[in-house]
Amino acid sequence: MQNQQFQYMYQSHRTWVYAWLCKKTGCIHDAADITQDTFIKLLHQVDLTEIIEPRAYLTTIAHGLMVNHFKRRAIENAYLEALSRFPESAMPSPEALSIAIETLVNIDNMLDGLPEKMRMAFLLCQLEGLSHAEIADKLSVSVSSVRKYITKALLHCVAVK
After folding, report:
1. DSSP labels for 66-81?
2. Is 113 left (phi over 0), alpha (psi -120 to 50) or beta?
3. What is the DSSP letter of 39?
4. Distance between CA 65 and CA 105 in Å, rounded?
5. In terms of pTM, does the model score above 0.70?
6. Mean pLDDT confidence for 53-73
7. Are 34 and 25 a contacting pair, CB within 8 Å?
């Protein structure tokens, strides 16, 4: 039954999802990839018979995947931009590049949902090694706020991981 329901959803809605994604992404290749990922994610759903509004459900899945796709691309582009400032001899191998981008995406996902100042305090502490006083000065907050921000960010990362 689950297999038949999936086949029905795929045959009935794949073209519509693809067209919707083409409009949203402006790229037929991205739309095709995200369409397939949408149905792969749908395939792993527990009970497809409980879906009352298939297009709304598929739109929600596709939208989330599209946002993640563009977020990942932005992170990748920013990393490649930063690397372009270094000599070619310092460039990582394709494998190391892929691992670094995946790590950056994972860090971004872990910090997702944190308030801006909390995220910035955490990053300034962890990446730039700034003291709590320096971070407080940069963010125009108290040192005790910085301590709270960093503690909450650490707890958030542990909970997300």
Report:
1. HHHHHHHHHHHHHHHH
2. left
3. H
4. 14
5. yes
6. 95
7. yes
